[in-house]
Amino acid sequence: MSGPTQHYDWGNLSGDEPREATRPERMPVPAHVSSDIGLLVLRLAVGASFAAAGARTLFGLAGGPGTDVVAAALAGLGFAAFAGPLAWVLAVGQLVLGVLLVLGLLTPFAAAGLLATKIAAVVVAFVPVPSAPLFAADGVNSVEFDVLLGAGAAALVFAGAGRIALDAGRTYQRRPLPWAVLSLVVGVAVALLVLFVLRR
Q1: Whole-structure pTM value
Q2: What stretches pass through the bilayer (predicted)?
């Protein structure tokens, strides 16, 4: 015979509810300085890489291609009908979400959004026919960097920002799994929308 049904506590976004005294089932934030430093390094590397890519596209920094060149490239990849708006959304999204990762703010949601861009990039490169090498050593325009950044974003979806972040103490940091799954589902849904609705 099964026991009584237990409801899962999703908490709230602000993280301002009382802690274990009234919510003993809520997991405490891991108190490991080494983990916090490791997550900070990962956030800085992944977030800064995305933010730099977005800034280069938007403002042409460091010889960046600009939105017109990115739009032309997207059109060549099958996004002709939406190439212009998609180039702007991609650039702004990379910049804003990358900065959020660096700050450690809304981390699972920002990371999921950036993961969506890399899922789309890898799928476009390999489906239906591989059009780019996997490894950088095998040629230009490889997807190795996309895979690594996507993996870093995916890790942050589940691991969170750590305590050296603006997210410190928020509910989705203290109860990460349900929020990570929700963020991941939304991110994958966005990637599928881009691939199957905007690509014609």
Answers
A1: 0.82
A2: 37-59, 71-92, 99-127, 147-166, 178-198
